[in-house]
Automatic annotation (TrEMBL):
It comes from Streptomyces tunisiensis. Pfam families: SEC-C. This is SEC-C domain-containing protein.
Length: 341
């Protein structure tokens, strides 16, 4: 379930409780699961409970994959229910740490923006853009919200366009231009009694909502199962019946890329890849009271891994490391055919 799903369409409290139980069962996936649970707690208005989940992660002693992201989410949440001083202290700490992940920067900058700290929001967006995009010819998809957010804040401040604003324009994919979309005077259109003005504003809001939802946490994707070479060897040796599914490692990789491209061509959104391991697959089979030799279990295993936050989004950026583990850039490996098009 999407964490941004409206409250009338989902029981956020029950969904959070389910994710917390799943985290107890799979502690190795606690970070992804508890972050989603905290999002549901926030949407349910249970902000102290969400903070408790962030604190649970930060004090767990585990090596978190995204510690700055957890702190940023905690700061944003704290500010929403009156803990401004603590939130500001966390935000200052994140800015000092200068993480290389765009997500914490986006969250703390938008928290500042939401509380009318426009100058501080602008400084934060700009720090992040300079840190992550200086000397980068093609901005990675994850950095687009930084460019768009900075553009939005600068329009509210009445700042003149600069080179980063031009880059924001270049990555904007919606039909309504950023200057119009981020025009501070748009708010006056909402009070108009002119049907044409209202209709035009609704179109602008729809475009903005599309861009915003694209940047939000996504639901777990339609995921395809990838076995690293050593795991695939162990799997087929232990369960020879599965060798029909995986005639060779090269065929396995080719099948994954082909399946994902076919799904993408059909319009399926949020595609991903999950990596299997023999021990976790055997444990999953045992929980399903089924033999690991049963090939029908494989897609269920992939879906379960994805629901536990194990999926990696596909396709990678052309310059990113290929999903197959070759160490080469995706555009020079399994993405070479896509790059040529």
């Amino acid at each position: 379930m999407r964490p941004d799903t409206p409250a009338e369409n989902v029981d956020h409290i029950n969904e959070a409780a389910r994710l917390e139980r799943t985290a107890d069962r799979y502690p190795e996936d606690a970070e992804a699961l508890l972050l989603r649970a905290a999002a549901h707690r926030e949407l349910a208005g249970e902000r102290p409970a969400a903070t408790a989940l962030y604190d649970r992660l930060l004090t767990s002693g585990a090596d978190l994959d995204h510690p700055h992201l957890v702190r940023a989410l905690k700061a944003s949440n704290l500010w929403e229910y009156g803990h401004e001083a603590e939130a500001r202290a966390i935000i200052d700490g994140i800015r000092t740490a200068s993480p290389r992940d765009p997500a914490p920067w986006v969250i703390v900058a938008e928290a500042l923006e939401a509380h009318d700290e426009l100058e501080q929001a602008h400084e934060t967006f700009t720090e992040a853009v300079r840190l992550l995009l200086t000397g980068v010819s093609e901005p990675p998809r994850a950095t687009h919200p930084l460019l768009l957010g900075r553009h939005r804040v600068r329009r509210m401040l009445g700042a003149a366009h600069d080179e980063w604003d031009a880059l924001a324009d270049s990555v904007h994919r919606h039909p309504i231009g950023l200057d119009e979309l981020h025009d501070p005077k748009r708010v006056w259109s909402l009070g108009s009694e002119n049907p044409e003005e209202l209709e035009a504003e609704i179109l602008r809001l729809r475009a903005e909502l599309g861009a915003y939802r694209e940047a939000l946490s996504r639901p777990f994707p339609v995921a395809v199962l990838h076995w690293p070479t050593d795991e695939l060897t162990e799997l087929t040796e232990a369960y020879p019946d599965l060798a029909e599914e995986y005639p060779s490692y090269e065929a396995h990789l080719a099948t994954i890329e082909a399946a994902l491209r076919e799904l993408a061509a059909s319009g399926t959104p949020n595609l991903g890849i999950v990596r299997g391991t023999v021990p976790s697959y055997e444990a999953f089979a045992a929980s399903e009271l089924t033999s690991p030799s049963d090939a029908s279990l494989l897609p269920q295993y992939a879906t379960t891994l994805a629901a536990r936050g194990r999926a990696v989004a596909w396709p990678p950026e052309r310059a990113e490391t290929c999903w197959c583990g070759s160490g080469r850039a995706y555009g020079e490996c399994h993405g070479v055919e896509a790059s040529s098009h």
